[in-house]
Amino acid sequence: MSEVKDYKKKFRELYLPKTTPMIVDVPEIQFVAIEGRGNPNEENGE
């Protein structure tokens, strides 16, 4: 299993930008996306 990373801490400059515009290099980052609808917490939810 892959270790969990806190990208907000590791790439602080991406998540807390400066007040002046600048060009940043965004590194390749692996992530997981989950798509769905409905409320999974409801008894008969989708």
Summarize, please:
By secondary structure, the chain is an all-alpha fold.
SSE layout and pairings?
Layout: H1 7-10, H2 12-15
Describe the overall structure.
- With 46 residues, this protein is mostly helical.
- Helices cover 17% and strands 0% of the residues.
- It is built from 2 helices and no strands.
- The longest helix has 4 residues, at 7-10.
The parts where pLDDT drops under 50 for at least 5 residues are: none
Q: What overall geometry do the principal axes of the alpha carbons give? A: elongated
SSE order: HH
Mean pLDDT rating: 79
Number of helices: 2
Structural class: mainly alpha
Largest sheet: none
Radius of gyration: 17 Å
Give keywords.
elongated; mainly alpha; 46 residues
